[in-house]
Amino acid sequence: MKAEDYRHIALDDVQSTNTECLEKAQAGDPGNLWITARRQLGGRGRRGRPWVSEAGNLYASLLLIDPAPVHALASLPLVAALAVHGAIARALPDPESSLKIKWPNDVLLNGGKISGILLESGIVPDGRRAVVIGCGVNVAHAPKEAMYATATLRDAGAAVSAEELFAYLCQSMARELARWGEGANMSETRELWLRWATGVGKQITVNMPNASIEGIFRDIDDTGCLILEKPDGSLQSIAAGDLFFL
Ligand SMILES: O=C(O)CCCC[C@@H]1SC[C@@H]2NC(=O)N[C@@H]21
Questions:
Q1: Taking every annotated instance into account, which residue ranges of this chain make up the domain BPL/LPL catalytic (predicted)?
Q2: What is the spatial order of strands in the sheet that 242-245 belongs to?
């Protein structure tokens, strides 16, 4: 599908563009629908954290219905990260900027988080699976009280608006979904993801809900899992967690 084949609804204030998409799906929407908002009053981040969503930044969610066989869905966060990375790269005036992907799907500009992505899913009344890819990008501002380094497109000298960045995102998302081919072509997506990844080969800590492990970030596999080499030399595959560099 090409970028123009996706529908788009632009809203003003919403709780969350992800919620809007999930509600559309429950009401029978066929999917391939982008919902954007000027502001979110209840923006959600990973692990139930809030996502501060003042006007000026990009809040965009893509609703897909049954985008791939269930076993391939775990790699969709990598597709989303590549798409957001591509859109931001296009907006940056300085081609030398360091724009990296931090596993699984944060995008970092010069080491500061410039984007977060939240995938959510649900089963619609006819039994099919709705998947929502929610993307937030710091265009004009970053949360003031963040516990981590942040970055914005404005501070990087990019004169792009949230609307213009959304147009770039539509194109890069369509391109990356087509490349991925419903998971059938994951090897190409994985290679590209690794090209932009930060921390591969480095000592890291991965925080998971009930544990935290240290080791060397060796690789990612075709399902998007991080392969960690533990101090005893054994390899552990990790499906989800927050990554920190030591
Ligand atoms: O914690 C993260 O890094 C993920 C943040 C995801 C934020 C986006 S903004 C658009 C969409 N709607 C939401 O409520 N969350 C996502």
A1: 4-181
A2: 235-238, 226-229, 211-220, 203-208, 242-245
Distance of CA 68 to the CA centre of its chain: 17
Q: Is 47 in the pocket of ligand 1 (CB under 6 A)?
A: no
Q: Any idea which fold 3-196 has?
A: BirA Bifunctional Protein; domain 2 (3.30.930)
Ramachandran quadrant class, 60 (left: phi over 0; alpha: psi -120 to 50; beta: rest): beta
Residue among 44, 58, 132, 148 to mutate when testing ligand 1 (max atoms within 8 A of CB): 44
Q: ipTM surpassing 0.90, yes or no? A: yes
- Could you report the per-residue pLDDT of 85-118, keeping only the tens digit for each? 999 999 999 888 899 999 999 999 999 999 999 9
User: Cα(138) to centroid of ligand 1, in Å?
Assistant: 11
Q: Which atom of ligand 1 is nearest to the CA of 46?
A: 1
Predicted TM-score of the model (pTM): 0.96
All structural domains of the chain with their residue ranges? 3-196, 203-245
